[in-house]
Batch of 2 targets.
Target 1
Amino acid sequence: MELQRNAFKAALGEGRTQIGLWSSLCSNIVAEILRDSGFDWILLDTEHSPNELPGLISQMQALAGGSATPIVRPAWNDPVLIKRILDAGAPALLIPFVQNAAEARAAVAATRYPPDGIRGITTSGRAARFGRVQNYLKTAADEICLLVQVETGPALAALEEIASVQGVDGVFIGPSDLAASLGHLGNAAHPEVQDAMRDAVTRLTKLGKPAGILTSNDAEARRYLEWGYRFVAVGSDLGVLARNADALARSFKT
């Protein structure tokens, strides 16, 4: 049995724009609803959501057969967390709070088997189709997509070094933490923050490295796409539910 092709990684490599959605509701039923919405990727969050490994597996199972590649954000750049999520079958990872090239290299090493990295070895997990992918150990790295998250001023200063680490497939700019780092807590729309995000995608484009970002604002999302961001989350399941529930209630109570 062959390892399944990572459609998201292939699309990034070909320069195709990928539209995604953040998923924070930790629900396999929500994931099943989103599966046929037409997104290119769905981010399953464990950093700021109470998602645990069994739930992640059920959400990835629910997304199977849909248009979206599941991307899992570990709670931290930790090789044990990364190992467990990869063994569970995640085809792509978004590593938070990468501050420099050394931390980017550590993230890459956690996704690679020796001698290229430190990932612990098993061939019987879900990622290897429970032992059915005979050459999994030699081909896994080809299909794993590794994205790193740059979200502070110091990390932006090291952007080229981080993005140039071999094995990093894309760089995600974190608007909220970047705003806080630049002294504008809760205000990612501040001109200084917006200028920094535009500068970041310009620099990444020069390197030929895909840039990603998240916003729930339609006008912002279209602006980021015009700037050159190639994988853009245009909302979240939590936000979609909350805003539409609020609007529905208001329409009948006012």
Target 2
Amino acid sequence: MQANNLETEVLVSLRRIVRAIDQHSNRLGKEFGLTTPQLLVLQTVANTKEQPIRVISAEVNLSQATVTSIVDRLERRGLLERQRSVVDRRKVFLVITDAGKDLLLKAPKPLQENFLHRFEGLREWEQHQLVCVLQQVAEMMGARHIDAAPLLDTGEITRGYLTPKTTPDLEPTGPTDNP
């Protein structure tokens, strides 16, 4: 294969990755009114018992302030509730509502779940090779220094955390099929 063809293949592959992430994010926003971080928080709360926000934030690798903002939105939509502990009234836990459970049953899994499942199926040397290549790509794109949460989602990085590419009422900002 000629160098020109290799360059084209690299750029096409990168574009496919970006579009797959963008399409998944926009589908999640349009069909379910959720961002990937919101879905992740909702899933984490559903899978844990009476955990405070700081535990949830550690679990999803987002700052406590970011998770608090996400919880506020999910609570306004009736998908999560804050409940005070009956043992220690100072403690507040997150609990998923029935509406939240229903939404989780319908919503697609976060894109990274499928990726991680397939990644874990690779041999260890292949996993290391893939990590090295992706780190090299990030370096080549001048993005290695950008702090990012382990989420496959489109959005802006603000103060080291993912800021979803949606307006406050969670409407996607535009079509995903633009080349």
